[in-house]
UniProtKB/TrEMBL annotation:
GO-annotated biological processes: protein import into peroxisome matrix; protein monoubiquitination
Pathway involvement of the protein, from the record: Protein modification; protein ubiquitination
Domain Pex N-terminal: 25-209
Subcellular locations according to the entry: Peroxisome membrane
Family: Belongs to the pex2/pex10/pex12 family.
Major localization listed first in the record, in broad terms: membrane
Membrane topology qualifier: Multi-pass membrane protein
Pfam families noted in UniProt: Pex2_Pex12
Record has Protein transport as a keyword: yes
Organism from which the protein derives: Plutella xylostella
GO cellular component: peroxisomal importomer complex; peroxisomal membrane
Protein name (database record): (diamondback moth) hypothetical protein
Keywords: Membrane, Metal-binding, Peroxisome, Protein transport, Transmembrane, Transmembrane helix, Transport, Zinc, Zinc-finger
Domain of life: Eukaryota
Length: 253
């Protein structure tokens, strides 16, 4: 009985709540559309110089997100949004948990990076293509050729896959809430990882940069159309905050 109690205490200690998990997921999913509004404004205001940013936004965001997520995975063993909410990724296996210190094993680090960046990019690209085919099918533009039949089948398969994926996410969250799973999301379960509260001594100037990005997208996303003055205000705020971050990092060093 005492052994079971000790194991239960170790398992539940530092386990994040459902609100923390959903909050960090919401933060991670709103950064991309918020930055897209800035790019759309720049492309509309300066089409000759910034028009290409809108055309290649998905690829540019993929590169930016990969660099950001790699930095946080390498130094904080967490994604950007997880680190913002004070969470850390740890292997579910007790043997791997302490084998590499506070850093994730290289294989889990690479797998986490792919699922955080490349997988959403491919899923969004596939969704855009399927959406165009769905609109053409609704408008009656798809004929009876073999290629058009395959497009209609792809639309149905994608809809079913999307429904199954969302139901699986809900089921995984229910398992996590009931304590029958230590992984809060499907991606963490596939990787054999779980979320834990990060040690307090990890907090440094990196958290300040997280706060800066969070305030940036929240400030821009408060309205559907960001005015030019709002963009200038955000740019001024970012410049001042960046100066403070550089000064703080020099002191810490």
């Amino acid at each position: 009985m005492a052994v079971y109690a000790a194991h239960l205490t170790r398992t539940l200690q530092g386990t994040p709540s459902v609100f923390q998990v959903t909050a960090q997921e919401a933060l991670g999913s709103t950064v991309k559309p918020a930055l897209r509004k800035v790019v759309e404004y720049l492309a509309a205001a300066y089409p000759e110089k910034c028009g290409w940013l809108e055309r290649w936004y998905d690829e540019l965001y993929l590169a930016l997100d990969a660099c950001l997520q790699y930095h946080y995975l390498k130094h904080y063993a967490a994604s950007f949004s997880e680190s913002f909410y004070g969470l850390i990724r740890t292997p579910t296996s007790s043997q791997l948990e302490f084998s590499s210190g506070t850093r994730l094993p290289p294989s889990l680090e690479r797998s986490s990076l792919l699922l955080l960046t490349l997988a959403p990019y491919l899923w969004d690209k596939a969704g855009d293509i399927v959406q165009r085919w769905r609109e053409r099918n609704e408008d009656g533009l798809l004929g009876k050729s073999k290629s058009d039949s395959l497009r209609r089948a792809a639309v149905k398969v994608y809809s079913i896959a999307h429904l199954v994926f969302e139901l699986s996410r809900l089921a995984q969250m229910c398992l996590y809430m009931s304590g029958r799973s230590v992984s809060a999301t499907l991606a963490l379960r596939w990787l054999g990882l779980r979320l834990r509260d990060a040690p307090t001594q990890r907090e440094d100037s990196g958290d300040l940069s997280s706060m800066f990005v969070f305030v940036l997208y929240l400030y821009i996303n408060c309205s559907k159309r960001a005015s030019r003055q709002k963009i200038l205000d955000v740019a001024s705020f970012c410049h001042k905050l960046r100066s403070k971050m550089v000064f703080a990092s020099c002191i810490l060093k």
